[in-house]
Amino acid sequence: MNQPQIPLEEKLHLDKTLSIVQAELDSVRAATKAQQQEMDRLRSELQTDRELANLWSSEEFEDLADLSQSVRLLTMQEETQDTAVARRIALEYQQHSPYFARLTLRFPDEEEDEPIYIGRFSLWNPKEKDLAVHDWRSPIASVFYRFGMEPAYYTAPLGRIDCLVTGKRQYEIRNGQIVYCFDADSVIQDKLLRKMLSQNASSQMRSIVETIQKDQDIAIRDEEHDLLMVQGVAGSGKTSIALHRVAYLMYEGLKNRLRSHNILILSPNTVFEKYISSVLPELGQRNTAAATLEYILENFLHTPVQSRVDRIDSLCKAESRQAEAMRRMLDFKSSPEFVAILDRFLQEIPRHFSQYQDLWYGDHLLATAQSLKNEIMQRDDKWPLGVRLHRLENILWEKIRALRPERMKTLYFRALQLSRGPEWARAYSLYETASLSRQIQAITRLSVRQLYLSLFADETRFLRLAKGIPLPSDIRSILTDTCEALRSDQPLPLSDASAMAYLKVRLEGRSASGDIRQVVIDEAQDYGMADYALLHSFYPNARFTVLGDINQSMERGMDHSFFGNVQKQLKIEKAALIELNKSFRCTKEILSFSEQFLKHAALQSFNRSGEEPKILPNDQIISCIRQCKEMGYKSIALIAKTAEMAEKWHARLSLEIPIRLMGRDINPGDVFIVPLALTKGLEFDAVFLLDCDETNYSTEDDRRLLYVACTRALHFLSFFYTSSPSLLLKQEDQCNG
Amino acid sequence: MDEIFAMVANAINHVTGLPRESIRPETDLQKLKFAQWATLIMACEKYYHIEIPDEKAIGFTCAQDLTLCIHQELSDGRSDYSAPTDEDRTDWYY
After folding, report:
1. Chain B interface, mutation test: which of A426, A440, A444, most B Cβ atoms within 10 Å?
2. Residues in CB range of A584: below 8 A, 6 or more apart
């Protein structure tokens, strides 16, 4: 990019802005230091109090009260300190780069243009009592992302504000110096975007506030819908949208008290979680929870759950017939039909699955089996079964407590008759209570795992429950295989864990967290309908942002009905679906090659050129890696179809070059081997797809895997084979080495 | 709480014969026979002038559970128990 001369007034304006930053930074640092001293004093007091207080003694209540008071003060100070530290970090960033764009706006009835500077964070000018820099999330900044040099508007708290864009300028400011600036007259700032996109991939995702596109901005700022769905092709910036939307919602959340702990980001795996972990802190937002579904399920069900990565990997390594069977099972358990069967099963549980029996306490009949059943069946249905059973248990124990004095009298008398001591009577009473407790719990305590197993173990019941619902042809083997998996000591299959958690939450009426008000689901195509039904039950008051690409499902084929089904399971009426067809990640050559793997291709490329993808024999891997390193690529990923194949390749290649194997928690360095299942959502400068022989990639499912693998590449893509390349790679205009 | 635990530990030692110094809050009570269980519970009840409900007693898994239950009963004021005298300490059981 040619470096134009930086106008003097720009330099002067930057100096002026930096002096404001410096003044505020000095003041924030001084305040932080004073707060730190106060916190140290409180901590020291707390330590003394703690030493004085005997926490095991109930008599030291006053000491405990003092201690609690000190802890509360310290917590308040820590919160204030956290805010000050966040501000200090923002100001330190602004010292290097206070803004990245300037809008010049003409408002109706005004004669002069007004310059609006936009940065990652806002900056207040105390002398002029005005904002020197506007936060990129502010309403006025939306004009920058959405309009060219034309009449524009934005929605402020007071309503719609009309204006005319008379100027747009973009800057790159580094270390407090303007590297370049240029006037942009369109909405899409191609020049800057091209520069950004041609950079190398880093091990951590970066924020894109400078280059957010119009469609992306619409998705980021949407507040109208309770469910926002984004179908975006690979590289269209879905994850960036998800994260910037979170930052935006928290900014906007100032008015509706949405805090970081009210937001949950669901990510496909822990590698991805780490990859995105620096974006929100970069945008000034910390402490937002990100988790995988399996992590949530493990905590909810208190049992190990199979990871999604393991599930994809076992699908990839299974031989074709086995993989087909696994996919059919997954298809079924991800379908709305399966959720419908679970719902019917839930209706049946109170009738058939509690072990109703007559309950006796000594010679007193507490309740008959029929009366217990009636009690449960006749209660108001709006209460979940678990709550009704819990209530019944309490009623029974109240009855027992009322009868106990009389019962003890009888037992003491019997002990006397038997010439035994009172401890005999007490032991008898304990024995009797323990036995009664077991009987009561057989009625009131339900084991979700046993219930779920019973759904699959009884074929006749299953088929009755599924009456009128289309079932896969191999439903019998699905039933058998599920029972086998549930009885084994292996981690619970992910789709079964979701279904079980759904049953549990519906039975017990407990949600995972009442605090979550916004759930952001990335790689949404990887979640089944039972997952969405569960998420609705877990977070009944939450709004959802669901981002995915139906073409990037590694586990099963899907179509556009997916998003409609998601909406049904989440039971949200105010919903919108935004489609993003433009890919910014790959060069147009890589994108065009990848398009062949899609059945319904609708990819648009951002016009960035690079090398044509190559199909090469294995013996060229090392030379190709060297070539990529010479070209300055920072992340060169060798993608193997399975974890096992990745390990084999690692053992082989590490004898010749320094190369690492990317595990779930490893930051792999510049050249690494990674199993396909772990590449979800990631991007690399160069992608080498290993073992691209016909034997490994031949089915329709493999076609989707190839699409996902190819679209990880930013600049360079090569396929390597041992004997003959997969027929799926054959393309008329391909370039063979 | 530590005093209650000391009493509970003494009672467990008396009932089971486990060395006093080996008894910890996590000491497992689930292996006790009903007779031992009853003796232990009755000892605690007698000492603290409380009544431990059977349905709570059968749920105790460790010494800490029993300690907490006694603490709860005392805190809830369901006892006329007062701090132990020296006589109580030497002649606490039977």
Report:
1. A426
2. A193, A197, A213, A235, A236, A237, A606
Q: And the tokens for B82? A: 């007062």
The torsion angles phi and psi of A48, rounded to 5 degrees, stand at -65, -45
Q: Summarize pLDDT for B57-92 with one digit per residue, the tens.
A: 888 889 999 999 999 888 877 777 665 566 655 554
Between CA A262 and CA A255 the distance in angstroms is: 14
**To the nearest 5 percent, what fractions of chain A are helix, strand and coil?**
50, 15, 30
Q: Do A437 and B53 touch (CB under 8 A)?
A: no
Q: Which residues pair with A106 in a beta bridge?
A: A164
> Angle, to 10 degrees, between the axis of helix A336-352 and the axis of helix A494-508?
50
A264: helix, strand or coil: strand
Contact status of B37 with chain A (Cβ, < 8 Å) = yes
Find the CB nearest A437 among B39, B41, B55.
B55
> Which residue in the block uniquely carries the two structure tokens 């002067």?
A12
The residue in chain B having the minimum alpha-carbon distance to the alpha carbon of residue A393 is: B55
Report the alpha-carbon distance of residue A634 to residue A206 in Å, rounded.
15
Q: Structure pTM?
A: 0.80
CB contact under 8 A, B37 and A427: yes
Q: What is the rounded distance in angstroms from the CA atom of residue A475 to the CA atom of residue A418?
A: 62
Q: What is the rounded CA–CA span in Å between residue A188 and residue A658?
A: 41
User: What distance in Å separates the CA atoms of residue A184 and residue A94, rounded to the nearest whole number?
Assistant: 23
Tell me the per-residue pLDDT of A225-247, one tens digit each, with 9 for 90 and over.
Answer: 999 999 998 888 898 899 999 88
Chain A residue with CA closest to B3: the answer is A57
In the chain, the amino acid numbered A286 is: R
Question: So what's the ipTM on this one?
Answer: 0.81
